[in-house]
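Incident log, support desk, overnight shift.

02:14 A customer reports that sequence design results differ from what the structure should imply. Their input is reproduced verbatim below. On-call engineer (initials T.W.) acknowledged and began investigating.
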């Protein structure tokens, strides 16, 4: 039975692919007001502004390429059972080759009917007021806005509890309930955190090794360490 690795990722893993994070210098929330673009109230008040915000993020996500961190995680599937629990709405984990990706905050390549909640693959096209589903309802980004339910939380919770190895990278661990998931792992699981600003991120979890590094440097290092560990304990 293959050992289980769960990766818990955030915007920082896609930073070196050119996608903005939220809370770093010049991050998205420095340039946009959350309450104007990422809440149900914003959608009700000014849907065009919300659609424009996600159209730009969709365009950037499609123009970005997976980086060596996404690829190192995908390649670990040769050695372990790997699940990625991501807060990211880009599909860079999937495009790097990861086959089990759980999106906590939605997926920018999908859209949702505001009338039936049905999902549609929408690709890189922009979404406008008047873009409707086959039943005639306005389409919205399939993104979890602040204050909305996190639909995949339960499956993410079940998955992370099985982890023998946990890799946390690219997240400020600021947003709940997502950030609370890292405390659901077995105490005995071996945990790694990769973040260039790791001095700001010291989650109180046992068996945690912190690498103060960017994902493209730190994640391949952790991948090699896990492979070595598997060989020793084979
Ligand atoms: N490699 C690894 N980590 C990085 C890199 C990098 N190259 N660059 C930045 N980071 C780290 C930052 O130090 C920070 O800890 O990535 C983290 C980014 O944090 P946030 O911008 O808060 O992003 P995230 O944690 O994913 O935000 C969570 O907040 O606004 C909501 O829904 C949104 O899913 C998002 C959630």
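02:41 Re-run completed on a clean worker. Output:
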């Amino acid at each position: 039975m293959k050992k289980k690795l769960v990766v818990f990722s955030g915007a920082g893993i896609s930073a070196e692919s050119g996608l903005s994070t939220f809370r770093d210098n010049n991050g998205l929330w420095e340039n946009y007001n959350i309450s104007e673009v990422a809440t149900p109230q914003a959608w009700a008040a000014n849907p065009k502004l919300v659609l424009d915000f996600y159209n730009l993020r969709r365009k950037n996500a499609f123009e970005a390429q997976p980086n060596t961190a996404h690829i190192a995680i995908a390649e670990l599937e040769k050695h372990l059972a790997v699940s990625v629990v991501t807060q990211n709405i880009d599909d860079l984990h999937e495009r790097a080759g990861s086959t089990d990706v759980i999106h906590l905050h939605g997926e920018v390549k999908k859209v949702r009917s505001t009338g039936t909640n049905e999902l549609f693959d929408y690709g890189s096209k922009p979404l406008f007021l008047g873009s409707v589903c086959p039943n005639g309802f306005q389409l919205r980004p399939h993104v979890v806005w602040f204050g909305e339910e996190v639909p995949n939380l339960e499956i993410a919770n079940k998955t992370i509890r099985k982890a023998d190895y946990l890799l946390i990278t690219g997240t400020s661990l600021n947003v709940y309930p997502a950030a609370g998931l890292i405390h659901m792992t077995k105490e005995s699981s071996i945990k790694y955190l990769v973040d260039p600003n790791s001095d700001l991120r010291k989650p109180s979890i046992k068996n945690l090794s912190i690498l103060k590094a960017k994902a493209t440097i730190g994640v391949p290092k952790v991948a090699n360490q896990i492979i070595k560990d598997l060989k020793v304990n084979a």
